[in-house]
């Protein structure tokens, strides 16, 4: 299993892996917002956490279509499915999700504090947003895996995955953003939405890979 | 260990491709599946591997023991694609499959030597020619042990010398108690029973003969 994780990470950072695509898209989204909204610093810092979360969410969806498609095109997916008796397929999917998260989504979390400065956010807000992103983004990858598994046979499945997955990511977005606000705006609670966010990640960490494995088993042709 | 197929039928997109296929394979036996394009050779192999659901019939592996409870766990599947990543080096690819599928009789370097690719393990897989890629994929069969090899057009792209070398590998695998089911148009150069798809799918064919 560790070898699968290492392989996917290595593929991600090698030529054509697209590890930085998400970060650059994230940067593009956040950098254009102040130009669109105008130089109202108060407004920017107020909408900052929400914009960071939306940017990160969209960037997460960007690379998901390649999660299984690349393996399907070169025949590796067949062999991963065949390995079901040794490595449960859901576990294989979970490892692939974790590798995808570590390779493509973790850079977003790392970049988020820097991009928070663009939004004139205060240090506490930046820290809280980065923390909620760290805890919440795996959930998006796990749901995304289910979408990617369903659309694995479609040559242009990227958009379909986004449409399938986006409604399911809304709870993650809501609790992520409300926890980020909770850290700065005083009457709002931080801990409760943050714990719900963590629970969502754990819940989807089981549900996402299990349903993706089911889709992959029945999607081979 | 014994692989048995009875009255096997396969379909593609709701259309029956073949039906009534039966064979039994004992350790040391090989079965070559031949037939015209579209007769269902690849479909049969994928059904045996469990990658496609069978439309009818029975397929089972007897006496697989704890190591090989199902056909899928006992087989190496070499399909049309090589299942190797072009961005990784040949050795990295093989090392991954060796770690993932379990260690076999030969190490990565040794397997590459066996297929005649010694000394190029450090090259990215994408730099290899078609025949070399196929040989690297064949090396994948050697780095992990599986008693049953399912080979789909295994010699596509290989030159004469490599074909002969691969025939030697297959014979060695059979002598060691392995089983092979290969779909091909070309003679593989091994002793094997033949299963003709297409015109004679209804006929229960001659069972495997020991090699």
Automatic annotation (TrEMBL), chain A:
PANTHER family: CYTOCHROME C BIOGENESIS B-RELATED, HEME EXPORTER PROTEIN B. It is a multi-pass membrane protein. InterPro entries: Cyt_c_biogenesis_CcmB, Cyt_c_CcmB_bac. It holds the Pfam family CcmB. The lineage of its organism: Bacteria, Pseudomonadati, Pseudomonadota, Alphaproteobacteria, Hyphomicrobiales. It comes from the Bacteria. Belongs to the CcmB/CycW/HelB family. Its main location: membrane. Keywords: Cell inner membrane, Cell membrane, Cytochrome c-type biogenesis, Membrane, Transmembrane, Transmembrane helix, Transport. This is Heme exporter protein B. Required for the export of heme to the periplasm for the biogenesis of c-type cytochromes. The chain crosses the membrane at residues 12-35, 47-68, 89-118, 124-152, 159-182, 194-216. It comes from Mesorhizobium huakuii. It is found in: Cell inner membrane. The gene is ccmB.
């Amino acid at each position: 299993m560790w070898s699968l994780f290492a392989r996917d990470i290595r593929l991600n950072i090698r030529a054509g892996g697209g590890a930085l695509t998400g970060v650059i898209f994230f940067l593009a989204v956040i950098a254009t917002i102040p130009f669109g909204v105008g130089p109202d610093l108060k407004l920017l810092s107020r909408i900052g956490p929400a914009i960071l979360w939306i940017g990160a969410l969209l960037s997460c969806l960007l690379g998901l279509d390649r999660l299984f498609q690349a393996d399907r095109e070169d025949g590796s997916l067949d062999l991963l499915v065949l390995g079901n008796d040794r490595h449960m397929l859901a576990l294989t999917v979970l490892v692939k999700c974790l590798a995808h998260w570590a390779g493509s989504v973790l850079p977003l979390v790392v970049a988020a504090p820097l991009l928070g400065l663009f939004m004139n956010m205060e240090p506490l807000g930046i820290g809280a947003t980065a923390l909620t992103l760290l805890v919440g983004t795996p959930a998006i990858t796990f749901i995304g895996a289910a979408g990617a598994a369903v659309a694995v046979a479609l040559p242009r499945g990227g958009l379909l995955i986004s449409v399938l997955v986006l409604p399911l990511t809304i709870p993650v977005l809501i609790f992520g953003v409300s926890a980020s606000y909770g850290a700065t705006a005083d009457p709002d609670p931080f801990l409760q939405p943050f714990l719900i966010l963590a629970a969502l990640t754990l819940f989807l960490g089981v549900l996402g890979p299990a349903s993706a494995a089911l889709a992959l088993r029945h999607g081979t042709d | 260990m014994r692989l048995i197929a009875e009255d096997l039928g396969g379909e593609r997109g709701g259309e029956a491709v073949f039906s009534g296929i039966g064979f039994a394979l004992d350790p040391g036996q090989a079965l070559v599946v031949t037939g015209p394009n579209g007769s269902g050779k690849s479909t049969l192999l994928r059904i045996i591997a469990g990658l496609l659901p069978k439309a009818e019939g029975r397929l089972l592996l007897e006496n697989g023991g704890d190591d090989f409870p199902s056909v899928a766990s006992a087989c190496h599947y070499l399909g049309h694609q090589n299942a190797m990543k072009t961005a990784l080096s040949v050795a990295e690819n093989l090392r991954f499959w060796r770690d993932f599928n379990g260690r076999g009789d030969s190490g990565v370097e040794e397997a590459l030597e066996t297929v005649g690719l010694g000394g190029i393990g450090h090259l990215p897989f994408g730099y290899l020619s078609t025949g070399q890629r196929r040989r690297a994929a064949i090396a994948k069969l050697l780095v992990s042990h599986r008693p049953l090899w399912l080979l789909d057009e295994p010699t596509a792209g290989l030159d004469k010398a490599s074909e002969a070398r691969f025939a030697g590998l297959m014979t060695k695998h059979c002598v060691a108690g392995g089983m092979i089911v290969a779909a091909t148009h070309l003679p593989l150069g091994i002793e094997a029973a033949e299963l003709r798809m297409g015109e004679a799918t209804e006929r229960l064919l001659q069972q495997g003969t020991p090699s």
